[in-house]
Each structure stands twice: as C-alpha cells, then as structure tokens.
Amino acid sequence: MNSDASIWNSLPVPAFIIDEQDRISDVNAAGEGFLNASRKSVIGHPVWDQIAVDAPLEEAFERARWQGTPLFVNDVDVGSGSRAPLQCALQIAPLVGHPGSMIMIISPRELAGRMTRGNTVKSAAQSAIGMAEMLAHEIKNPLAGITGAAQLLSMNIPPQDLELTDLIVAESRRIVKLLEQVEQFGNLQKPDFKPVNIHDVLDRARRSALLGFGADMTIIEDYDPSLPLAYGDPDQFLQVVLNLLKNASEAAGPQGGTIRLRTYFEHSFRLRRSDGSGHSLPLQIEIIDDGPGLPEDIRGDIFDPFVSGRENGTGLGLALVSKIISDHDGWISAESVPGRTVFELSLRRAPRDAIEDKKEST
Ligand SMILES: Nc1ncnc2c1ncn2[C@@H]1O[C@H](COP(=O)(O)OP(=O)(O)OP(=O)(O)O)[C@@H](O)[C@H]1O
Ligand SMILES: [Mg+2]
Questions:
Q1: Do residues 260 and 288 touch, judged by C-beta distance below 8 A?
Q2: pTM (two decimals)
Q3: Ligand 1 pocket check for 294: Cβ under 6 Å
Q4: Is the model's pLDDT at 133 over the cut of 70?
Q5: Burial class (CB in 10 A: 0-12, 13-18, 19+), 182
Q6: 3-class DSSP state for residue 257?
Q7: d(CA 49, CA 7)
Q8: Range with top average pLDDT, 110-124, 128-142, 186-200
Q9: Is the CB of residue 320 below 6 angstroms from any atom belonging to ligand 1?
Q10: Helical segments of 158-232, H only
C-alpha cells in the first residue's frame, strides 16, 4: 500500500499541491469533491482559475513561498466554478523537499457553523414561539370585538369615513391570519416516525406548488433513484418542502424562475452534538432556486421566528421548517448568492426493523 497516497486521500478536507507556476500539481479526494471535478481534469491548470478566493492573497502567498513560511487566512469566501462561495479558512505552507511548491488546505467553516447553529435555532425559536402562542391566544378575542365594533360603526357613518372602518377591519384580519400561523406552531405534533420515500414527498409538494403559489415556476427533479427510505413524518416533511418551495416562488416573483429538487446519498454526513453523541444523516435533499438570493441583512437569522425580508411576510415559514427538522434530529442549512440559493436538508435513514414492520403491516 502506498501510505502517502492513502493519507492524502483520507484527509477529510480539500488539499491541493500548487507548483512554482501556480498550477495544480495534485489534489486529494476531498479536493476533487470541493471542485466537483476529477483530479485528471484539473492537474496542470492554474489554481486560481479553479478556486476563487475573495481576498487579495497574491502578495502574502508569494512571500510565504519565497520565505518558506506558512500562511493562514481565516474567514474568506472560497468558490469554485460550480458552487456558491463557502466561508473557509486557508492553510498554506511550503512543500518540504519541493522548492517553490506549496500545499494548500481549505477548511470550509460551513460544516462547523451548521453543527453549532442548530441548537441555538431550536431553543431561540422555542422560547419566542411559546411567548407568541400565549399572546396569540390573548389577542384573538379582543380583536374579534374590535372588528365587530368597526363593522357596526360602518353602518352609521358618512361614506367618506368608511375608508377608516375598512382599514380597521382589513388590518384586524391580517393580524388574525398572523395569529393563526403562530398557533400552527403550537399544534405541531411530535413526528409520527415511519419509513418515508422522500421522492414521493417531493412529488406531492411539486404538484401542489405548480397548481398554486408556484404556477409561474419550473420545477426540475434531479433524484438519486437509489436513495434509501428516510425516517420521519411524511406530512411534516411535506410541510417543510412546501414552505421552501413557497419561499423560492415568492423570491422569484411574478416573472417566475427555476427550482431544482436534488437528492443524493452522502454516508459520511453526521450530526455531532456537544455531548459527543451523534448519528448519521446520509439522505441529502437540496432545493435550489435561481432567484435573487437571501436579503443580505437577514441572511444570518432566517431560521429565527418573525424574521422576514418580505412585505407582509410573517417570518414563520423557516422557523417552522427548522423546528420540524430538529424534531427529526435532522439538519438544515442555507447557502445563497444572487442567482443561486440552496436549502439543504440532511435526514436520517429508516432503520431496517422499521422497514420490516412496514412490510408486514401492508
Ligand atoms: N429561496 C429564497 N430566496 C430568497 N429569499 C428567501 C428564500 N427563502 C427565504 N428567503 C428570505 O427569508 C425570509 C424568511 O422566510 P420565512 O419563510 O421564514 O418567512 P416569510 O416567507 O417571510 O413569511 P411566512 O413564510 O411566514 O409567510 C423571507 O422573507 C425571505 O426574505
Ligand atoms: Mg415563507
């Protein structure tokens, strides 16, 4: 066994060897995954054509090369031709025994970020929602009274004042609608876990979107047909996908756009908790749209309740999505640049005994 090669390809982070003319002279398996290209197709190509780093690196890079010192760059956006930029840390060092050559390791921060964000999303969402549910309950009754009173008033006032009572009625209706959405959270049951064919869920969501809010959209299916069954509540999964499709359709606006539903299997994806426990989340579902992207100012908070970038948005869609996914011990993350927004879900695979039970019962 060639141990150098096996170490090189076992490194779980993308790594590149760059020659003295800034061409890629080697790339490990994770690097191929990062570029979404084969080793053969990138070797010999200028590295900065393949990897776009959003920072003025040249000078520091040259210095590191000729002084033989390592270079560390934190928190830079690194992109490659086919994917949205990811926030990464770069570690660059001269390659011992090969003057002028450098090794560069890219550690995407995304995975680390995803792991820690989930818990905070869950607890922040829960406390805000608990509060909101209580308020919703308290506000609905007096609001019905206000609406009723405005309607009574409108019968006896001069026509030019009708605008005012109409406003009261319309605004009250809007608040009632918001409160009903808040209550939807409270009504969310614990998931009824069973083996679920995710492609059935995606199909149902797709068809209902095309008949309603997504009538102007093109929805493309890009499924891995060998994807195993997921484990969870099919109705809740449907709610998740519908919410994501609805957001993408709303972001696209009346001129429409394209949504791609992609599934694939990634057995190495694991959820690790701070207490050291964890489990595998091998089913990946991506909902990719070509709309304008997440608004800059709310990008970091979209999973929090009441955060909305839309006029008339309540900001509860993604909070609900994130609650459902965390009730399923799954993971959700978002990546967005104008023209490409990806919501990625990672779910558990159905355990074998659950699948056997299902077979027996049908
Ligand atoms: N695919 C997307 N493209 C662009 N922006 C998005 C996308 N998905 C979500 N957003 C942004 O994230 C915000 C929060 O979404 P969320 O679904 O939580 O709330 P909402 O859509 O505003 O309201 P609600 O879903 O409760 O009606 C949206 O208002 C929108 O600005
Ligand atoms: Mg929404």
A1: yes
A2: 0.64
A3: yes
A4: yes
A5: buried
A6: strand
A7: 26
A8: 186-200
A9: no
A10: 162-186, 198-211
**Tokens standing for 130?**
């608990």
Contact call for residues 333 and 344 (beta carbons, < 8 A):
yes
153: which strand partners?
none
- Mean pLDDT throughout 322-337? 91
Contact 210, 174 (CB under 8 A): no
Q: Which residues pair with 345 in a beta bridge?
A: 285, 332
How far is the C-alpha of 99 from the C-alpha of 66, rounded, in Å? 9
Please name which ligand lies nearest the alpha carbon of 182. Answer: 1
Rama region for 10: left / alpha / beta (φ>0; ψ in -120 to 50; rest): alpha
Nearest to 15 by CA among 75, 101, 82: 101
Question: Rounded mean pLDDT of 120-141?
Answer: 70
Q: Over 70: is that where the pLDDT of 192 sits?
A: yes
Residue 304, helix vs strand vs coil:
coil
Determine contact, residues 93/72, Cβ cutoff 8 Å. Answer: no
Q: Whose atoms come closest to the Cα of 316: which ligand? A: 1
Whole-angstrom distance, CA of residue 206 vs CA of residue 189: 24
Question: Which ligand 1 atom is the nearest neighbour of the CA of 252?
Answer: 3
- Could you give the angle at which helices 110-153 and 162-186 cross, rounded to 10 degrees? 140
**289 close to ligand 1 (CB < 6 Angstrom):** yes
CB 86 within 8 A of CB 335: yes
CA angle 346, 347, 351 (to 5 degrees): 150
- The Cα–Cα gap between 35 and 27 comes to 10
SS3 content of the chain, % helix, strand, coil (to 5): 45, 25, 30
- Mean pLDDT along residues 334-344: 94
